[in-house]
Each structure stands twice: as C-alpha cells, then as structure tokens.
Amino acid sequence: MPGLSTFLLWGFSSFPDGQDLSFVMIFFSHVTILVADVSIMVAIKLNHNLHTPTYFFLCGLSFSETCTTMVITPRMLVDLLSESKTISLPERATQMFLFFVLGANNCLLLAAMSYDHYTAIHSPLHYTILMTQKICFQLMTASCVTGIVVSLCIVLVIFNLSFCDSSTVKHFFGDITSVVSLAWDYTFFQKMVLLAFSAFVLVGSFIFIMISCVFIGSIVMRLPSAQGRYEAFSTCSFHLTVVCIHYGFAGFVYLRPKDSDSFREDMLMAVTYTVLTPLLNPIVYSLRNKEMKISLKKVLGNICRFSPRW
Prior knowledge:
The protein contains 10 helices and 3 strands, in the order βααβαααβααααα. It has helices spanning 19-46, 53-81, 89-122, 127-130, 133-158, 176-180, 188-220, 226-254, 262-287, 290-306, and strands at residues 6-9, 86-88, 167-169. Strands 2-1-3 form a 3-stranded mixed beta sheet. Putative odorant or sperm cell receptor. It is found in: Cell membrane.
C-alpha cells in the first residue's frame, strides 16, 4: 500500500442537508440500543428463571450487538459533526476487522439459536442433556473464533492491496466494496476469495437456519395440541423475523452484483443494518416475551429507584 496513510470517509457528505437530522436520529437510536441491550443482559443475569440456553444465546447476541454499534456509531456521529472526515489506515483496518468479527459472530449466534429452538421442540425430554452449559459455551466460543478467523482473512486480503495516494471512501465506515473499489490491483481471484468468505458466513449460517426452521415446522405441524403449535410457532416467528431482517439487508449489500452507482444504495442499507437491526432485536426477542418483560420492569424500576434525585 505505498503512499497511503489515511482514508477520507465521504459518507454522509452526499446528504449535506440531512446531516443534522441524521445525527439526532442516529444518536437517540444508539442510546436506545445501548440501554435496551444492557437492560436485557442485566435482566437475564439477575433472573435465575432466565438462566437457560435460549436466554444465554440472547445475552450473547445482545452483547455482540452492543459491541457492533460501539464500533461503528460513535465514529459515524463524530463525522456528522466534523469537517475533517479522515481515518488512519490502522484505525480503518481495526474498525473493519472488529465489525466483521462481530457481524460474523451475530450470524453464527443466530444459527446457534436456531439449533437451540430445534432441540427444544424435537427432543424436549432430552433438552437439558443435549443443551448443557458446556455445549452452550462451546457453541458461543466456536461462533467467536470462526468470526475472528474469517474476519482476519478478509482484512489481510483487503489491506494487502495497493491503493492510490489519496483515497476517498464513499461510505461512512468503509465496508468491503467501498474500500476495494479504490485499489488498482484488485483482481478477479481476490474478489472470489472475499466473496467466498462472506458467503461462508452469510449463506452458510442462513442455510443452516432455514433447514432448522423446516424441521421445526414439520415437527410443530404434527403436535396434537393447538396451544402447543401456537406457542412453538410464536417463539420461532420472533427468531425468524430477526433472521430475515439481519440477512436480508446484509445479503443485499455484500452478495448482490455491484455497479458504479451502487455505493449510495449500499450506504443507506448499511445504516439500516448497523442501526435499525440492533434496535429491532431487543423489541422482537424481549418485549414480546412475558418473562423478559417482567424482568426488564424490575431492572428499570431499580434503576429509577436508586437514581439520584436533584
């Protein structure tokens, strides 16, 4: 990468009239995400009735979503208010690495949650044996390690490319497409390698989730109790909603064919999956769950009770 030391994040400069409104909306969304995810983690930790594999993975997903928004959103907010939107090469590489680690971890955690749902419905009598604490930790660890390995490979491929002396990234954080488009030695082979790594996480985990859903659906349809079918479908529908939102936006950005005019669309879609998706996850998974709502009310009630009064 001879001569390159910084990137210029063009990002929201494409929308000069909407930057103030964007800052307000993204800031409040960011705060809401942090409060919601932290509340979920605290509620699960304090309520022993929620110490189950399902809520263990939900806690992990909330933590991962919190880290994801902390990697991207603060820098986005600074750039919305700043005249200088440059980012150093080490900072850019670190941000990209962390974002893809957490993004891959989210995909694999959603797959682990699908397996958990399938096990609970397929083998309810053996569920506690099949989903022990050790197995849950192993699945969580495997998700994290796989995300690190895949993300490291992606970053090494990208930042071994040669860029121009002055590189303007048409994005607010510089994802794969916006960065590699600036390289003059980006070959078809490297493009296929990056596509393979992205597809391994996105498509691989999505196929696993869909297969789990098909098996779950076939089992649920054979349940004799209408109430049992309703409860099973209700639980899985929340999970499937988050899956569709998460994979729909990510797949649109990373797996669809690119053209010279796609950067603006990609950036708008990226706002969706970096801000809207983490905002919807707590709502879908928690606020429609009776036990979680009770636990959250207790947590928020304690916060209000012990908050200083001026």
